[in-house]
Amino acid sequence: MLLSSCYDKAHISVQNKVHNATITQIRWDDYSLGHSILPGETSKEKEIFDKKETFPKTSVVKFYLKRGDNQVYLETKYAFTLDSGDKLVIIISDTTQVINPALPLIPE
């Protein structure tokens, strides 16, 4: 008898390369990737289990950027794709393009 799992898995984490800022409440799709990571740190790797037919998954990263007493909600401008078997490390740096969805978009 052959048994097969109806679930696949992948791994995802986020690395903070933003100078002098903490990234908090990090989310990708419906998954929490960390509560708070300091500059130079990487979140714990999150194992994503899902049905085979729902991979690949694509989402932006949503987070708060905190510097001193100031904090702003941001989302990456571009989405990241995670497929079954992947080990994806998303790097948020000073040059990562982000948007604040609460603000009106400015034409490029």
Question: What would your notes on this structure say?
Answer:
This protein is an all-beta fold. It has one domain (7-99): Immunoglobulin-like, CATH 2.60.40. It is built from no helices and ten strands. Strands 3-2-6-7-10 form a five-stranded antiparallel beta sheet, with no helix packed on it. Strands 4-1-9 form a three-stranded mixed beta sheet, with no helix packed on it. A two-stranded antiparallel ribbon has the order 5-8. Strand 6 (61-67) and strand 7 (70-76) form a beta hairpin. The relative contact order is 0.28.
In CATH, the architecture is: Sandwich
Proportion of helical residues: under 10%
- Helix/strand order: EEEEEEEEEE
Q: Low-confidence spans: pLDDT under 50, at least 5 residues?
A: none
Backbone structural class: mainly beta
Shape: globular
User: Count of helices?
Assistant: 0
β-strand number = 10
CATH topology: Immunoglobulin-like
How is the topology of this model organized?
Layout (H helix, E strand, L loop, with lengths): L6 E11 L4 E7 L2 E7 L8 E6 L5 E3 L1 E7 L2 E7 L3 E3 L4 E7 L4 E2 L9
Parallel strand pairs: 1-9
Antiparallel strand pairs: 1-4, 2-3, 2-6, 5-8, 6-7, 7-10
Brief rundown of the structure:
The chain is mostly beta strands and 108 residues long.
